[in-house]
């Protein structure tokens, strides 16, 4: 995928953030890929554009994965050609949903959230699900991030100082979207369902060996759905936020090298 497109660009790459995050999570990746000739878009998910500490949009609580997909579909359909879609965490799930609609040239999934039908594969994932269920009907609420939970799980491979800096940028997430992703077996609309037969583009799935949110086994399970279309890579010692960790450049290099080979 090294051919240049219009205006000398390698093409367009759309980078999708995960739950509680915004476009800022891709600051390093955006600079990295723009320097290599990619035109990069980093859209904000619906109701995620607010600054930390500002009031939450009332519509966030019941925003569905299907709403995020509808917004992103409109953005992508305005492009002259299908882009490479990169998604982190829940953004990795959204990337698969978009690819199943024929909207992707290729998808790169960084510690992606599980799709419909994929069960938790680690004790950490099970404990997280049990913790959510104990909070009551969270699917009707905007979910505020909790520092102690984030520090222990998604931010576990960052320094204590860095954990505080990153957490300060987190924003609330839709309880409905989290429910559709984590508790798909109770979702009558099957919002997180991806038919792998409809994904006809190359797939890269990257796991962090120390990820407590989406285990390496779960990421491999996602990759296995796509058989020979998928490439699976695992970075030992890295966690869920591998975009922001000290070795982030190795992950970016792996994505860039993969794009050169497919």
Q: How would you describe what is shown here?
A:
By secondary structure, this protein is an alpha/beta fold. It has a single domain, classed as 3-Layer(aba) Sandwich (Rossmann fold), CATH 3.40.50. The protein has nine helices and eight strands. The strands form two sheets. Strands 2-1-3-4-7-8 form a six-stranded parallel sheet, with helices on both faces. Strands 5-6 form a two-stranded antiparallel ribbon. The protein is globular and about 45 Å long. The termini are close together.
Core attributes:
single chain, about 260 residues, alpha/beta, Rossmann fold, six-stranded parallel β-sheet, two-stranded antiparallel sheet, disordered N terminus
What's the short story on this structure?
The protein has helices at residues 27-35, 65-77, 90-99, 123-133, 147-152, 160-167, 175-182, 216-224, 248-261; strands at 11-16, 38-41, 84-88, 106-110, 142-143, 173-174, 203-208, 230-235. It has 262 residues and is of the alpha/beta class.
């Amino acid at each position: 995928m090294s051919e240049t497109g219009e205006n000398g660009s390698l093409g367009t790459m759309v980078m999708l953030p995960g739950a509680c995050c915004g476009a800022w999570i891709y600051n390093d990746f955006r600079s990295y890929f723009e320097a290599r000739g990619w035109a990069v878009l980093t859209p904000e998910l619906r109701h995620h554009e607010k600054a930390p500490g500002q009031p939450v949009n009332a519509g966030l609580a019941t925003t569905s994965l299907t709403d995020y997909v509808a917004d992103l579909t409109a953005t992508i359909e305005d492009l002259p050609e299908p882009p490479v879609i990169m998604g982190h965490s829940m953004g990795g799930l959204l990337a698969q949903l978009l690819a199943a609609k024929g909207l992707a040239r290729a998808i790169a999934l960084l510690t992606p959230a599980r799709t419909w039908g994929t069960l938790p594969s680690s004790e950490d994932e099970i404990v997280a699900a049990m913790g959510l269920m104990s909070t009551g009907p969270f699917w009707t609420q905007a979910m505020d991030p909790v520092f102690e939970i984030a520090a222990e799980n998604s931010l576990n491979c960052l320094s204590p100082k860095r954990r505080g800096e990153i957490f300060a940028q987190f924003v609330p997430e839709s309880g409905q979207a989290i429910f559709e992703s984590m508790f798909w077996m109770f979702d009558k609309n099957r919002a997180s369902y991806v038919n792998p037969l409809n994904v006809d583009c190359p797939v890269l799935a990257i796991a962090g060996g120390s990820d407590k949110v989406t285990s390496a086994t779960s990421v491999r399970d996602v990759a296995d759905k796509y058989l020979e279309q998928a490439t699976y890579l695992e970075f030992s010692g890295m966690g869920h936020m591998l975009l922001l960790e000290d070795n982030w450049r190795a992950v970016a290099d792996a994505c860039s090298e993969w794009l050169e080979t497919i």
